[in-house]
Every structure is written in structure tokens, then in C-alpha cells.
Amino acid sequence: xxxxxxxxxxxxxxxxxxxxxxxxxxxxxxxxxxxxxxxxxxxxxxxxxxxxxxxxxxxxxxxxxxxxxxxxxxxxxxxxxxxxxxxxxxxxxxxxxxxxxxxxxxxxxxxxxxxxxxxxxxxxxxxxxxxxxxxxxxxxxxxxxxxxx
Length: 149
What we know:
Blueprint: E1 5-10, H1 14-23, E2 29-35, H2 39-49, E3 53-55, H3 58-62, E4 69-72, H4 76-88, E5 92-96, H5 103-116, E6 120-123, H6 130-140
Parallel strand pairs: 1-2, 1-4, 2-3, 4-5, 5-6
Helix pairs in contact: 4-5
């Protein structure tokens, strides 16, 4: 029997809810803490998804011993500092893109991930979207050429 991965999710808005909808379809993963900017709105989301711990303070969730990993669905300017806080707290971290808004901060997250042995990853789930896969296959097959970016 494998261990259930206990997750804290920061960001109870649109992206966070997409993650919560996805996680409920994955066996062996449980969101045990939800972090949001507005406590009452965050509580409403937590009730809907059966999440017992709600806070507006990431550090409070990081202090929970049962939390194995954190998903960050927060504003870009918070990504690097929050990723660093997660890694320093001994938690794995998945952060929405981009990882950081500076190269220096991104390098620091990578350094701490290596140093701690904890996974730090960026999520970009649209690569699994059928329309994105279709375009990718067309480009790989030489049927589409990128003209401008």
C-alpha cells in the first residue's frame, strides 16, 4: 500500500480550483490545507472540497507536519519566494508558471531544490490539452512552421 501524498494548496482562485478539480480524480493525493488571500472566500472553497485546514498564511501550512508538498497557484511575483520557503520547510513544491520573475531567483529555487533533495517543478498542464498536442504534432511532422513569436 502506498502512502497518501498530503498537499497544501496556495491560491484558492481560478487556477487553484482547477488544481483542486484535477486532484480529486487522483488516488493517493489529498489536499489537507488551503491558503488564500481572503479567509472567508478561502473557507468557502475549502468546504466545497472537504479541506480541513484553511489559512491566509503559507508559513502556517508549511508548519503542518503532515504536509508533504505544496502547490503554488499564486501571483507570479510571489512564486520564487514562496517556492524557497517551501523548500526550506522541507516540502516538495509545484509552482504555476513562471517559476520566478528573475533569472537569479529561479537559479536560487533550483539550487535549494538540489541542496534539499526536494522536488521543485513548474506546471504547465496545457501541454496535455488536445488542441495543444494537435498543434505540437503538426509542427513535429513538418506540417506547420513557426513564422513569428
